[in-house]
């Protein structure tokens, strides 16, 4: 199984940062994508596990790809679409896109291109390869409830503390703590933060033993206060950055994938993201103000070119017996070619076998009509027996001897000679017993 936990140095050297984005910009893009998934999932009535799984896919995806190559909102819809299948709460792709259209303005929805469903379905194949088909994700929610059931004290204060910790877990999805620590450690840290803020100190708990100095020693061992404080500070910094973002302008629109520059084909994901050109910022007259603004972009290229560039060999290759969901692939793992744009009745050489016109029907051979009295007339009897040759004559040694029929004493034939001898033996036996 792949390891999805990184240290702080690796988080400072992501493909987006190597592509020219700043650390603060990447963190803001991650937060915007995570909150978009939560808002879109809430409007569609999805559970917290489905939304959290989609956010984890989102963070893992951008550890291998740049935000400049794949728009965050298109990726967010794709992650939510895949998470619905994994968590057994599937939603149709068109319903997710329809919900996203109601959330995003025209400027941001422009990144979905001319065919939003095709963009999301094609990106799903890249997402599956990027996360290495590791679909099962654990979340701190389960561990949070498990730990809270063991606490003793005022139930009203305990319930308030658990609710606050639950909200912290929801907000932590907008950070990268899921890429640094296991879910049980995150649950311990956020319960510790909620207990400090709600002034509910856990003094006693079920299953307490003498060697347990703190309540989390019974569940997670070797967890220092430095680790817990680091997680708490990342969540608290999220609220401080939210206040600062209220005074900053909205993030600039991203070039849609249907009009993005095609990246240079490579065999490595990091080299792929490093070779993608950064889209130029819009001009001053085209700079959006608030939620409006229009942009004129060129270099039309579909996102399928990005899908064909991502290598299907190496660490991101899917297993041989596994096919991505919702995407057609052929025997070598490449996407099926699109249908031809010309007339289907022509005989162009570039036709695919699935899009070729049907073959013409075979010619109809007319049969001779039946005669009117065909059912009443009897066919004539066959005549080939009348001309048959006579059977051959019996060999001379098999027939009767000369004069046998006339009572003469001619020499008997082979058959008669044997018959006479047998008769003589029978007569001698009869005379002997008389």
From TrEMBL:
Residues 400-412 have a biased composition (Gly residues). It is found in: Nucleus. Residues 261-274 have a biased composition (Polar residues). Keywords: Cell cycle, Cell division, Cyclin, Mitosis, Nucleus, Transcription, Transcription regulation. Residues 35-129, 142-240 form the Cyclin-like domain. Residues 242-296, 369-434 are annotated as: Disordered. InterPro entries: Cyclin-like_dom, Cyclin-like_sf, Cyclin/Ssn8, Cyclin_C-dom, Cyclin_N. It comes from the Eukaryota. One of its GO terms (cellular component) is nucleus. Gene3D superfamilies: Cyclin-like. Residues 138-265 form the Cyclin C-terminal domain. It holds the Pfam family Cyclin_N. The keyword Cell cycle applies. One of its GO terms (molecular function) is cyclin-dependent protein serine/threonine kinase regulator activity. The keyword Cell cycle applies. Regulatory subunit of cyclin-dependent kinases that mediates activation of target kinases. Plays a role in transcriptional regulation via its role in regulating the phosphorylation of the C-terminal domain (CTD) of the large subunit of RNA polymerase II (POLR2A). This is Cyclin-K. It comes from Drosophila grimshawi (Hawaiian fruit fly).
